[in-house]
């Protein structure tokens, strides 16, 4: 956003075509699907509601969402309900593997070689980069949540106002000097891959699968830039076939439980700069469901 400053280590001035990012692509059991197939698209430009933290509410495709934006935007991306009905539903089995991929390139510049010619079987890449690296320009945890459409409701009509259960997160490792290394961000180099299973214990039904990377904001004034968290949410529509008989565990509500005061959404300036971890830091988005139990979602150090 326009307020980004060059003072902070993690800020990055990119050309407009490379600004920010969106999750746009799924692989199902190792097979990449077409970009935005099964993923609700976004509307651009889109006028968000006015908030104290943003001076320009017109957002382009890859721009961040703020927790004070429209609830629908926070759940699944800007104007996602307008795209829900004409988005396909991916049929999976509980226990199947999903991989996700993002892009920083604007849709007007999308070309086949950023999807279909990528090194090492990745689902997206940047043909304009010498190493074809599609990077992230912000550090933070990558999260995936499931929300079940109410019984009798087509997922293509579901707005995500129910509960969300976290099934995957990818956070950071700690370097020897105590600084932190966000695995998705990787200092704007080649990111980790994002591969996870739909838990075997997931009950049958239609679900939204929410994908996000959250750039935590700051607790400490007077840094004005990004003092609010930035989120980058999109949702896939999936139909889960399952023999599981147990219930889905309790989840969070979005945006109520994903705001500037909920755990993991803001850090100290030192952690913001990647220099250290805050005591007791937990990743945002609630407890993590392993399929067996809900656990606290903390860095494994
Ligand atoms: Cu950004």
UniProtKB/TrEMBL annotation:
Q: Which Pfam families match?
A: AA9
InterPro entries in the record, alphabetically? AA9 (IPR049892), AA9_LPMO (IPR005103)
Record GO terms (molecular function) = metal ion binding; monooxygenase activity
Q: Does the record carry Signal as a key word?
A: yes
The terms describing its cellular component in GO are: extracellular region
Task: Recite the UniProt keywords alphabetically.
Answer: Carbohydrate metabolism, Cellulose degradation, Copper, Disulfide bond, Metal-binding, Monooxygenase, Oxidoreductase, Polysaccharide degradation, Secreted, Signal
Catalyses:
[(1->4)-beta-D-glucosyl]n+m + reduced acceptor + O2 = 4-dehydro-beta-D-glucosyl-[(1->4)-beta-D-glucosyl]n-1 + [(1->4)-beta-D-glucosyl]m + acceptor + H2O
Q: What class of enzyme is it?
A: oxidoreductase
Homology family: Belongs to the polysaccharide monooxygenase AA9 family.
Q: What is this protein called?
A: lytic cellulose monooxygenase (C4-dehydrogenating)
